[in-house]
Amino acid sequence: MIGDKIYRFDKLDSTNDYASKVAYEFPEGTVIIAEEQTKGKGTQGKNWFSPKGGVWLSLILKPGDNSCISLMAGVAVCQSLYNLKIPARIKWPNDVFVGRKKIAGVLTEVLSKGEVIIGIGINLNIKTFPAELKDVATSAMIEKNKEYDKNKFVEFLIKNLEEKYILFKKDKKTLLEEWKDYSNIMQRFIEIKSAGSLIRGRVINLDSNGALLLELPSGKIESIIAGEFSIQGE
Ligand code: BTN
Question: Could you read off the pLDDT of 5-30 as tens digits, one per residue?
């Protein structure tokens, strides 16, 4: 179902913006891919560096219930990178890192009629990054010093997305377990800025909606649905 229809473009401003415009008329599972983006969007209004060589795609989904939907993309991305022997890790909710450098990101947007656009950016064959990203970003090419067959990779990614979407619909518990296996924060002490305040605690689990469960120094359990955090000691 996912990838039954794939629309490929040489250049788009943003695959998410394009997908949002056509989401009402195009069937669920449609994939929009661009070789490069001129206005790639990251989370929190940031730009996303999207030159040729990377995998920039958006997926149109109509899941009904959206909880944990973006976690499934993180799992599919990690699995696809593992297949290239790249030890990728998910930082909650769905940034993907190799060591301390980001290799992929997911931008999920929910439209007014419930359609969900999942934008996935993976730094595959990117040789160099601009100065401001050099210390914080990496690519499969940089990690392994080789060029990958992008079409093959995208095919595998789409197959993984399909598998994880089926899991999302049928067995969220297993999907959350897979997410935990790929994440780097379970049992770690973190500091998170959430709703204007700074909270410190140990990550003890994810709840059934994908929220982080933090154990505070007082022993109280706090559930976090959004925020920017850092892992203590990193
Ligand atoms: C992040 O900041 O971590 C999210 C990055 C998401 C980038 C992808 S690339 C394809 C899709 N189109 C966009 O404009 N953004 C997403």
Answer: 999 999 999 999 999 999 999 999 99
